[in-house]
Specification:
Structural class: mainly alpha
Helix content: 55-70%
Number of helices: 4
Radius of gyration: 19 Å
Order of helices and strands: HHHH
Largest sheet: none
Number of strands: 0
Length: 110
């Protein structure tokens, strides 16, 4: 692997911080929608739809956060940066963009 693990560690920590803020905001947006007479039927349906979209984004963000924390815990392992399928080095660009990746591009597309 041609990348400095300290650089990757810093990148992962930065992404974790950003995701934690995003998750906090999404949790606020996914709160219960109170039945309010002041909003019309269409507005209420729109609010319910937005809540569903935010809930999906929250689940996706929480999963990515979990994977980033796992990657951070494994960064010092000798197998970090090697594909879990074919054992070949994961491309440097992929690790930079998706440090939680455990597979090379070829194996991820299977």
């Amino acid at each position: 692997m041609n990348i400095d693990k300290n650089e990757i560690r810093h990148l992962i920590e930065k992404q974790i911080t950003i995701l934690e803020r995003k998750i906090s905001n999404l949790k606020e947006l996914t709160g219960a929608i109170a039945p309010d007479d002041a909003i019309g039927r269409v507005s209420r349906m729109d609010a319910i739809n937005n809540k569903s979209v935010n809930e999906a984004a929250l689940r996706k963000s929480e999963l990515k956060l979990k994977k980033l924390n796992e990657a951070l815990g494994q960064i010092d392992d000798p197998d970090f940066g090697l594909c879990i399928i074919c054992k070949a080095p994961i491309q440097a660009g992929r690790i930079i963009l998706m440090p939680e990746s455990r597979k090379c591009v070829k194996c991820a597309q299977r």
